[in-house]
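Hi, here's the filled form for the chain we discussed.

Project: internal
Contact: R.S.
Residues: 123
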Amino acid sequence: MSHIILFDGVCHFCDRSVQFILKRDKKAVYQFASLQSDIGQMILDKYGAPADVDSLVYVTGNQYYVKSSAALRICKHLKGLWKLCSLLLMVPKPLRDPVYTIVARNRYKWFGKKKAVRCHLPK
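And the returned structure, exactly as it came back:
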């Protein structure tokens, strides 16, 4: 089963999040693409995900997840105590997603924005 994470390629917070995931993905479960890339757009189209998603999409099997559902499902495969974050999926989405939305809406203001899509490779 593939595990694909689509992220905002111009967002510093998103770039740091990818580095965070890579460091804790010891089994190399995840593959990454920016939402702005051709492959990212093809994946959104293939799975019928909304074209206006601008922060995070997690694709696994034949399903896609956005917002807090994506972030928490990604935690499931990370090493250490991060796996426990996936337990927050038991909290109803109407309670989880507003917190995610606040961070997503303010990510450029709080963390900055790149001038172009540049993804750093793992060190």
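Let me know if anything looks off before we file it.
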